[in-house]
Amino acid sequence: MIVVLIILLYAGMIMNFGQHGSAEDHKRYMEQVISQGRRRCHCGCTKRATHRGMANGVCLTIGCELYVRRWVRDGINARKVGV
Fold first, then answer.
1. How much is the pLDDT for 13?
2. Are the C-beta atoms of 59 and 71 separated by less than 8 Å?
3. Residue 45 contacts residue 67 (beta carbons within 8 Å)
4. Nearest Cα to Cα of residue 23 among 79, 62, 49, 61
5. Terminal Cα-to-Cα distance of the chain (whole angstroms)
6. In the structure, what pLDDT confidence band is assigned to residue 8 with cuts at 50, 70 and 90?
7. Neighbour-count burial for 45-81, b at 16+ CB within 10 Å, e otherwise
8. Which of 31, 38, 23, 20 is nearest to 75 (CA)?
């Protein structure tokens, strides 16, 4: 009975993957983006936005590798370059 309940709870968590992402409530991670466009990082480094910051399958931010690594580590308190 308990095993069935745990499996149903886990299945419910998988069904919600990609529908809601929170920088504080979910685990943050980064993915590389194929940078075909001319989108630039908004941190002030003027490099191309080559990575995206993800949480629960939802893209929450995009920027250069350094900016997104800081965002993964620090969350919403990530600083911009030179600030």
1. 53
2. no
3. yes
4. 61
5. 55
6. very low
7. eebbbbbbbbbbeeebbbbbeebbebbbeeeeebeee
8. 23
Domain extents for the chain? 2-77
Task: Look at residues 5, 83, 58 and name the one whose alpha carbon lies nearest to residue 67.
Answer: 83
DSSP state string for 37-61:
S--B-TTSS--B--EEEEETTEEEE
What was the pLDDT predicted at 77? 72
The string of pLDDT tens digits covering residues 18-75 is 566 777 777 889 999 886 777 888 888 888 899 999 888 888 889 999 999 998 998 7
